[in-house]
């Protein structure tokens, strides 16, 4: 008689996903479905657990540069590209919805987009969301990499880009790699300078968001815009 061997639960992430849905899987299991195979001597779920520990969780792992991932023994270009693609797909999925709604009526969608776009970054990035006169998304763009205190973003450049996109309004967002989302004095100063520069060409600055990991602080909601 042929005996069937019952595999441990952690070895069947795809079957668990089909039976219970993706929400029932742990982070390592979801990653295992994507990566599909482990490396010699290490099952795929064990590999994913190791990656999560090494990079400090999902945000750190998905935000890692491909060269960082490929530096992990046994993790080649194919798996590094899969992980980079996951984050980009999530960002694009959220971005697809923004042109359909007013950013003022759905601020949580804007915050979610900025969290996905910026929350994992290890250096400071500043982006702009260019809006039409109904505050729907026209386009997004990166303004700078670096720190606002080093004047890496110039109001005149933001104004020029806003005019190029025929924007009636815009939202800017940047991240704090320190993990603290509290706007700095430099953030407040830059925001006021930008608001005045945009007003000269009749463009409204709707909000300035500061992102740190999973936290987003809105200057507009705080009344400091």
Q: Can you characterise this structure?
A:
This protein has ten helices and five strands; from the N terminus they run αααααααββαβαββα. The protein has helices at residues 13-20, 27-35, 44-55, 58-62, 66-70, 77-97, 107-118, 155-164, 185-199, 219-222; strands spanning 125-131, 137-145, 169-175, 204-212, 215-218. It is elongated. It has a five-stranded mixed beta sheet with strand order 2-1-3-4-5, with helices on both faces. The longest helix is centred in the middle third of the chain and has 21 residues, at 77-97. The protein has 225 residues and is an alpha+beta fold.
Question: CA-to-CA gap between the ends?
Answer: 75 Å
Look at the helices and sheets and give the structural class.
Answer: alpha+beta
Give the strand order, joined by hyphens, for the main sheet: 2-1-3-4-5
The helix/strand order is: HHHHHHHEEHEHEEH
Helix share, percent:
40-55%
Keywords:
about 220 residues, alpha+beta, five-stranded mixed beta sheet, 5 strands, about 45% helix, about 15% strand, elongated, disordered N terminus
